[in-house]
Write a structure and sequence with these properties.
Oligomer: heterodimer
Shape of chain B: flat
Number of helices of chain A: 11
Number of helices of chain B: 8
Radius of gyration of chain B: 25 Å
Largest sheet of chain B: 5 strands, mixed
Distance between the termini of chain A: 17 Å
Shape of chain A: globular
Radius of gyration of chain A: 19 Å
Strand order of the largest sheet of chain B: 2-1-4-3-5
Strand content of chain B: 5-15%
Largest interface: A-B, 69 and 48 residues
Order of helices and strands of chain A: HHHHHHHHHHH
Largest sheet of chain A: none
Helix content of chain B: 40-55%
Structural class of chain B: alpha/beta
Strand content of chain A: under 5%
Order of helices and strands of chain B: HHHHEEHEEHEHHEEE
């Protein structure tokens, strides 16, 4: 958990500003993959930044992972709603600005931290996620963002059953690449732990 | 409770981890870095929030015009009631600060407040209302009006003019009650929520829209108000809600599909 909590010497606005500096380009890159119109990418990313900036007091006490999850989920929701109705888009932003933050529970976050990052599996997980095909990575991300099977199907323009099947293939590829990497690590240096060997 | 590194994350753990580590999703390009930087600058300068507020006001002004138009077009009885009651001192929309004592002067719109004259005075003092006007000499500062007067406009917004109290009569408006009561502010909230949550939402049938309007009324806490369904709603697929504070009525009427 080291380095994941708010530093006492920075203001909430500073902390969120730093996090946005680090995460902003990734958010822009991700939304660029999702949205067809570059103007929509600009609008959505700017509005997510604005919402985070406006609510920095409430976001600052949270762990980085929770804030990042909120940023990307908010961007994803804005993208979906913008596609449905541009007329209501500004109203939605206004609602997000003034309603309760839609956050993951802190307990859930800590549990994931402990089970994956804390257990030395964070770097390995990151490498596998980066190594699988872009198409499968996108499916896993959509699933992580909470999109249902029919929503994934609509996004990709395929049937519900095809979406479920592709998600299953994506998870299988993750497992296969994980096993391959683990085998490779064991052969290279059987005495070293997995995360240590990848730093 | 550390686990062996070999154990693969479960599907649920993987989803949770992915959600918290978007840095693993995509490798940003130099253009992503530059664009994100530019967008962050626009947020930190306040430019983005100002843009958002302008767009929101534009949407609400369009909507206010639609709502008032719907009331006025609601038939002779509705129109007469509106004229007779004159909506003398009750505002249902925001505060419009005018840059001159005419109805077509440049204006900025602020949220409905208990002190509209004070809110506009702040806008004048900060120079926001006179932004863009170039002083004739470098030492000249934008002129502050000696008097500001609030009237209730046709669109049921509070209009604040840089002039004395006779301005409301001269422009055919009614002076605002200098001490707006709690109900006036609640009516402002009601108008805001009806605009946002009903009139800009997807089309729905009259019963659904009436239910939504009643829910908002209950949540805002206005007593003595009723929700009516206008006969025009029969068989129509898209509704809007008109607000009439003189009769304390929300009327569900047919409108064009959005």
């Amino acid at each position: 958990m080291k380095g994941r909590r708010r530093r006492v010497d920075s203001t909430p606005a500073d902390r969120i500003a730093q996090l946005l500096d680090r995460t902003g380009p990734v958010l822009h890159g991700y939304m660029r993959q999702l949205e067809h119109d570059p103007r929509d990418v600009e609008e959505i990313v700017a509005d997510v930044f604005m919402l985070a900036h406006q609510r920095s007091d409430e976001l600052a006490p949270l762990a980085d992972g929770q804030v990042r999850a909120w940023l990307f989920r908010t961007a994803s929701n804005l993208g979906k709603n913008r596609a449905r109705s541009k007329k209501r888009y500004r109203m939605l932003i206004e609602r997000i600005m003034h309603s309760d933050l839609d956050l993951d529970s802190g307990d859930e976050f800590l549990a994931v931290e402990e089970r994956i990052d804390g257990a030395g599996r964070g770097a390995m997980t990151a490498e596998v996620v980066r190594s699988i095909s872009e198409h499968h990575r996108r499916l896993l991300i959509m699933s992580a963002l909470g999109l249902t099977g029919p929503e994934i199907a609509a996004e990709l323009g395929i049937s519900d059953s095809a979406a479920r099947k592709r998600l299953m293939h994506a998870r299988n590829e993750f497992k296969v690449v994980w096993a391959e990497l683990l085998d490779g690590e064991s052969e290279a240096d059987p005495g070293r732990d997995v995360e240590g060997s990848r730093r | 409770m550390n686990e062996p590194a070999e154990r693969m994350p479960s599907d649920a753990e993987l989803s949770a981890w992915i959600l918290r580590h978007p840095e693993a999703w995509v490798e940003p390009t130099a253009d992503d870095v530059a664009r994100a930087d530019a967008l962050l600058r626009s947020v930190r300068s306040g430019e983005r929030l100002a843009f958002h507020r302008r767009e929101l006001r534009r949407r609400r002004r369009t909507l206010a015009a639609m709502v008032v138009g719907a009331v006025a077009a609601g038939g002779a009885v509705g129109a007469a009631a509106l004229v007779r009651s004159g909506q003398p001192d009750r505002a249902e929309q925001g505060v419009v600060c005018r840059a001159a004592a005419t109805l077509d002067a440049d204006a900025m719109v602020l949220p409905l407040s208990s002190d509209p004259v004070g809110a506009c005075a702040d806008a004048w003092a900060s120079g926001t209302l006179t932004a863009g006007r170039v002083p004739e000499t470098p030492s000249q500062t934008p002129e502050q009006p000696a008097d500001l007067t609030a009237c209730v406009g046709d669109g049921r917004a509070v209009e604040v003019f840089p002039d004395g109290e006779e301005v409301c009569d001269r422009l055919g408006l009614v002076p605002l009650d200098p001490k707006p009561d709690g109900e006036t502010l609640l009516v402002g909230q009601l108008a805001d929520r009806i605009a946002t949550e009903v009139n800009l939402a997807d089309c729905a049938d009259a019963a659904t829209v009436a239910g939504e309007a009643q829910r908002i009324l209950d949540e805002v806490g206005l007593a003595g108000w009723t929700v009516k369904i206008d006969p025009s709603a029969d068989g129509a697929t898209c509704m809007a809600v008109a607000i009439d504070s003189s009769t304390r009525t929300l009327t569900v009427r047919a409108t064009r599909p959005r």
